[in-house]
């Protein structure tokens, strides 16, 4: 019998590919389990798109049906408000002659069958070479960058103004930053990163989640799969692999592409070069879908039990370091950082 996770992926693929779901014979308890699982992964609204296409006698009923509808409407309302805020920012930027580029979430929503089904927590934006002016335009001239961006509220929406695109902790991130910024001279008229630059940025951002948190949201993998699918004619796979090899991310590129192909339900083998480690692909899938990441080692433990707990945790995670920014020094730094937590 398919698990609730299998059922979630089934409806998710139907939504992302605009395909019929076929006959469903799920009881109220399964619909409730599915709702809470989809909510945990941030895909309620995407799945609700598939539910709306079902015959009435196969849709969830009663309170759980209302939960699906209300959650989806909240996502759409928030998305519409973000678009209004972005339109206001665009108008001010045009008046002041400030170039800007929109990053991540809301900029990737256009690749979804229904853009407002993609939940977007905040707006990520960059005013290349005009960080302080960007802060002023956003109404927070004194805002300071914490890490790679400053943060402020604009009409109730969190906006992150990026001083830089990546954390710049590793040499590969510096290389990626330089590679991407060359595509912003000048900033494209549509205020989006061109496909090759966006490819590097999306993957670097995805890998950074693993580097910093040893976990990865399902939405990141969906974004990656839909981006590649939409830009299949714009991206040359040999060129993609060549760039990723220079940045030390070719193994991650192939792994996440194969994983996205499975989760999104679209053939992306066109981009994959060489053999992907199937065991690592399954581990990454489990980490994303079942959240099989380890908790921090309690500081209250005595020295030796704490040391042994850290060693044990490292052994469970060491497969992951093959897919982090991959110079030897960077991998050692990532391992030591993780080991100290």
Describe the structure.
It is built from 14 helices and four strands. With 341 residues, it is mainly alpha-helical. The chain has a domain at 166-341. Strands 1-2-4-3 form a four-stranded mixed sheet. A hairpin with a 2-residue loop joins strand 3 (149-154) and strand 4. The longest helix has 35 residues, at 62-96. The two termini are 39 Å apart.
Number of strands: 4
Assembly context of the chains:
single chain
Distance between the termini: 39 Å
Q: Determine the number of helices (DSSP H or I, runs of at least 4 residues).
A: 14
How would you state the average pLDDT, rounded?
Answer: 91
Order of neighbouring strands in the sheet with most strands: 1-2-4-3
Q: Which ranges are low-confidence, i.e. pLDDT below 50, for 5 or more consecutive residues? A: none
Q: What percentage of amino acids are in beta strands?
A: 5-15%
Shape label: globular
What is the H/E order?
Answer: HHHHEHEHEEHHHHHHHH
Biggest sheet record? 4 strands, mixed
Helical content (DSSP H or I, runs of 4+): 55-70%
Assign the structural class, choosing from mainly alpha, mainly beta, alpha/beta, alpha+beta, or little secondary structure.
Answer: mainly alpha
């Amino acid at each position: 019998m398919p698990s609730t996770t299998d059922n979630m992926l089934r409806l998710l693929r139907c939504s992302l590919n605009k395909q019929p779901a076929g006959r469903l014979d799920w009881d109220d308890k399964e619909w409730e389990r599915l709702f809470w699982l989809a909510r945990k992964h941030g895909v309620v609204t995407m799945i609700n798109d598939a539910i709306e296409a079902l015959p009435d006698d196969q849709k969830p009923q009663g309170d759980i049906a209302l939960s699906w509808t209300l959650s989806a409407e909240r996502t759409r309302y928030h998305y519409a408000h973000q678009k209004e805020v972005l339109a206001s920012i665009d108008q001010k930027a045009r008046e002041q002659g400030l170039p800007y580029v929109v990053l991540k979430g809301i900029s990737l929503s256009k690749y979804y069958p229904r853009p407002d089904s993609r939940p977007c927590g905040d707006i990520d934006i960059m005013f290349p070479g005009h960080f302080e002016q960007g802060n002023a335009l956003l109404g927070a001239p004194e805002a300071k960058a914490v890490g790679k961006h400053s943060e402020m509220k604009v009409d109730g929406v969190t906006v992150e103004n990026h001083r830089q695109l990546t954390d710049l902790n590793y040499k590969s991130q510096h290389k990626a930053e330089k590679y991407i910024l060359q595509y912003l001279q000048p900033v494209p008229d549509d205020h989006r990163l061109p496909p090759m630059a966006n490819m590097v940025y999306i993957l670097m951002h995805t890998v950074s989640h693993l580097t910093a948190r040893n976990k990865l949201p399902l939405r990141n993998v969906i974004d990656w799969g839909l981006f590649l699918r939409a830009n299949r004619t714009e991206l040359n796979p040999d060129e993609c692999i060549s760039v990723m090899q220079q940045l030390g991310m070719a193994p991650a590129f192939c792994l996440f592409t194969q994983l996205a192909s499975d989760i999104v339900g679209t053939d992306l083998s066109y981009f994959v070069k060489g053999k992907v480690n199937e065991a690592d692909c399954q581990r990454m899938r489990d980490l994303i879908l079942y959240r099989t990441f380890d908790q921090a080692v309690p500081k209250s433990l005595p020295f030796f039990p704490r040391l042994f707990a850290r060693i044990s945790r490292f052994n469970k995670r060491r497969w992951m370091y093959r897919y982090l920014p991959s110079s030897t020094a960077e991998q050692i730094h990532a391992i030591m950082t993780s080991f100290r937590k």
